[in-house]
Amino acid sequence: MAKIKLIVNGTEKQAISVSASPYQYYAKSLITSVTDIVYVVALDNNGKELDRALVKVVQKTTSGTITANDFQKGTDNKVIGTYTGDIVKVGLSVNGTEYTRIPVSNGSFEYYANDKILATTDVVVITGYDAAGNPLDSQIVKVTTKASTTGEIQLSSYKYGTDSKIKGTYTGDIVKVRVTKGGQTYSTIPVSNNVIEYYAKNIVTSVTDVVMMEGLNSEGKVVSTKQLNIYTGDGTITADSYRIGTDQVTGTYTGDVKRVSIEVNGTVQSAIPVSGNKYEYYAKTLITSPTDVVYAIAYDATGRELNRVPVTILDKTPPTGTITMESYKVGKDKQVKGTTTGDITRIALVVNGVEQSKIPVTNNAFAYYAANLITSANDKVSMIGYAADGTKVTEVDVTLTKVTGTITADSYKVGASYLTGTYTGDVTRISVEVNGTEYQTIPVTGNNIYRYFLRDKVTAVTDVVKVYGKDDLGNKISEVDLVLTN
Fold this sequence. Notes:
The protein is mainly beta. Helix content is 0%, strand content 49%. The strands form 16 sheets. Strands 1, 2, 3, 4 and 5 form a five-stranded antiparallel β-sheet that branches. Strands 9, 10, 11, 13 and 14 form a five-stranded antiparallel β-sheet that branches. Strands 28, 29, 30, 32 and 33 form a five-stranded antiparallel β-sheet that branches. A hairpin with a 5-residue loop joins strand 32 (294-299) and strand 33 (305-310). The mean pLDDT is 92.
């Protein structure tokens, strides 16, 4: 077999030369439907059909996800978010009406929607589409207004007979706090710097009092309410800052504390026994977001709450790592190789903006097959490192180098069987062109000397003959004019 061609729906396409198996035939613009009937045909040097096979045509599977930030009516002009996978366009629909789809790039999008989203009751959906217009993922966009404010109060326990102020912290849009007890509302005071101190010695008059604190936004709306824990026993608790993804909430305690628990978003977890004035409470599966509201709570031997303190929640430490790349010689190398450090467990090659599939890293090293992906030293190539949870850690460029090499050709006597010559460098294949027709490409033997059967191709000293040296991809990297003699 010297050449192959395609037949698509009965139409013959251009024949190309092949030298080895497997072969490649560019067909993206030729095969456009899964209903196309396609054959690949093997030909000899004279174009005679040797064999043919039916090509199975299947639909390419695309996938992707999309996320969108909340849209605050009266403040935001655009719906902003991110996407992954094969998404190339994003469309917005409001109350069932879809607006123009816009192209997106680099994993993020901004869709102007100030004239489309008119009320907080609007049902807004953002959808990601692939290049064929197929919807891949949708998400409902939450619509809020400036008045839809949020915030949270956290209160430290109040020791009756000793403390005079209710102390705590707040988050979000809270600008004022007030206290209620037994149906009576006490004065409202401003707060700042996320710290609460409210004089309450005249309010808390019994350990059995039910005292509530309310946090208000600038509109006077109550956005958070918490009950004050009032205690008389001797016992305090502290809590270290907790980072998402770690195992334990830790801290210390004093006095009559015998058991410790934590409260997460209003749910009190089971209490554990403690000793030695330090405690560790397993919370990895309980605290999952930096916005979680968490308290550490101390109890005496009877189970009575003695003290509670808020736990400061820190976001998890982002994964880190580096990639070190070896240079890649186009036309010679088959694999892109390199090493990794840190949290990188998978890598993906990017060629001319198209990210390829991810492969695992083994023992901090990788070898990514790229002979069919990188075809030119002018390609833009990079490598992305990912952590185990899919987080992108880093991306580095791959340095591409060109193959080099030379060939020589001994003078050829017309009628002789073989052309002979030498080669150097990255030359791995030889072909001959006679009077504008290029003939079969053959591999070289590895000893820097080649032979090419030429008797049936050159018939006169007036023939114009060129000899080409090629790399592994079949690219010409050296050529010489052949001298013919009688």
